[in-house]
Amino acid sequence: MELSDRKKKILRAVVEKYVETAEPVGSKAIVNDCGLSVSSATVRNEMADLESMGLLEHPHTSSGRVPTAQGYRVYVNELMEEHRLSEHDTDTINRALRNNVQQLDKVLSDAGRLTSQLTNYPAYALAVSSQQPVINRFDLIHVDQHTFIIVVLLNNNTVKNKLVHLPVNVAPETLTKLSAVFNANFTGIPEEEMTPQLIAASERASGDTSGFVAVIAGFAIELLMTAKSRETFMTGASHLFEHPEFRDVDKAHRVLSYLSDENGLLKLPTPDQAGGSRITIGPENLAEELKDSSVVVAKYDAGDNLQGIIGVVGPTRMDYSKVAARLQYIANGLSWLLAGGFSLPGIDDRDS
Amino acid sequence: MELSDRKKKILRAVVEKYVETAEPVGSKAIVNDCGLSVSSATVRNEMADLESMGLLEHPHTSSGRVPTAQGYRVYVNELMEEHRLSEHDTDTINRALRNNVQQLDKVLSDAGRLTSQLTNYPAYALAVSSQQPVINRFDLIHVDQHTFIIVVLLNNNTVKNKLVHLPVNVAPETLTKLSAVFNANFTGIPEEEMTPQLIAASERASGDTSGFVAVIAGFAIELLMTAKSRETFMTGASHLFEHPEFRDVDKAHRVLSYLSDENGLLKLPTPDQAGGSRITIGPENLAEELKDSSVVVAKYDAGDNLQGIIGVVGPTRMDYSKVAARLQYIANGLSWLLAGGFSLPGIDDRDS
DNA sequence: TTTAGCACTCAGAGGTCGTGAGTGCTAAAC
DNA sequence: GTTTAGCACTCACGACCTCTGAGTGCTAAA
What we know:
2 copies of one chain form a homodimer. Chain A is of the alpha+beta class. Helices cover 45% and strands 18% of the residues of chain A. Chain A is built from 12 helices and 10 strands. In chain A, helix 1 crosses helix 4. The two termini of chain A are 38 Å apart. Chains A and B meet through strand 4, strand 5, strand 6, helix 9 and helix 10 of A and strand 4, strand 5, strand 6, helix 9 and helix 10 of B. The structure holds a DNA duplex.
């Protein structure tokens, strides 16, 4: 099914006009706007054709046309022009990213916030490890008689810590011994293998009778369990209401509840390769709750088996070109920040 | 202005019925419900009195009564019975808290999620340090040739870390020297005093020419800056829609935007003493956006100058008693978890 | 193949009307 | 003085109608 040039032009005009105004587009508006030198009647005929092809539809007999999901799909695949980011946009993004000297989860939630601000849609961000999380290394830092810090380096290059107070005395030598035992017994193994037996054996090995081993092992297990379930962030929910399709409270509620639920977020679309973005329109979404919303996602690469996704959710009437471009730029920036990671000056010095 | 017993009974009945049904309450309903042995006409007279006192109001002439903000206030101050938590509730809370072996920010966001689930309102959680944040201690952990971990202990007993890759070689001795310099020069001082001069001096002192000092100092500064601006979490936004007063999209939008903004959250009410809860009804709220919503907050104490607040936001028509009780229980649990902090088994063994 | 012309359709705004829950008031009863 | 029965009154809400105008589909001529 090949579209004539004129049909393409008209479909494109309908999509773009509708994205802009949120009102069904009539034949006259098309003629005025996109400088076709034909009459509205001709456009009407063409639109009727496009409708029978399933690319446009009528809310009711006497109103203008609106793109169908399939219409948007054709637009996205064939008609859409690549959006060039304005200097202002790239500046904002670069500045926001550069200021980020934080821990991974903070970086992620900040990236979500940034995305949401820049697109005016709710944004989500998540990190996905492609391999089973294990601990690479333990360090125990002595603080005072009753206090020490557990520092754990995971194989996905994130670091977790916990400050521990205990009612019993904590000697530096004890910590040295404990950390040796943990580095010997608890590194490189998944959470399931941290059995009570292993813990008991480690208690014997370190001569611990005060529950140190139990505390540290407990932290390790908890950590690996939550690392498995991935971290997700959702921000900018209230942006949903800026779009007329979400004036319907029930619809807004459905989508928001879905987005508020971590399990929902994890099921959202994922693009295949880093740097690319993926657009999922209306019923293409697997989730029932998103059947009349669209999702745009981009993937970033944080090196060392750690990848992540940032995405936005909005009405099908969305400026796909602009959103995808911004998302990609942010994702690339994140890849650069996290993977290269040489967090010295000048993220904006690279050529973009 | 002292209320007669009967008036109290009627006001209380109106509030409780209205909280339950969300519909204006008529005189007949009161008679049926709260077992007063008087006629509806008498109740009507009493209600007219209560209205002239400003405790009840009429949406329109021919509808039942609804409590005013002042009416709720009287109810909360004088008439409300203390809500006893069910065993199921306390169990849920204990279980959720006990499983928490995480870092502070994670604990907080989890507490918010829990609160929101248990109350069916959007919840917020924030940590407030009553003193200026400074760093108590630096540790640098050598990982490999190009990698080390910065671990920083703040005076509010939170620990922050960052994994650093650098293109230059990192010797363990260098890190030892650096950590000595940082512990000497950068501990106990606020962010403003970490001047370029100090950084330059530290570079000379440690003989650093590869930018290590700059990286670590950058992390320290960034850390203190964000510690100053406090951490805030908001969860459960979508619960708003479960309440009929937020069927109005614009109203929901206003409140949600307000809650999505960190600066807004920081301005929400705070209770004075830990363990207590505070209820702010409708126009008592300073924020224009919350003039017809209510806020219930509870404070918890994490020892060592660190305090925090959890709260929920909902319509003025709220089961204050239940919400306040749950919030307090969660806050107490958090205090226990964070302050005592001996995270050994059995948070639920204490008597509650 | 395109276009002018025209009848047709239908959402949405605005108006009218009936219904019923709940009131305020009055006058009688306690 | 307080309570109650009775009754007229009010007004939101839903059902129903009408008018309007934008935009269509179709037909017949260019």
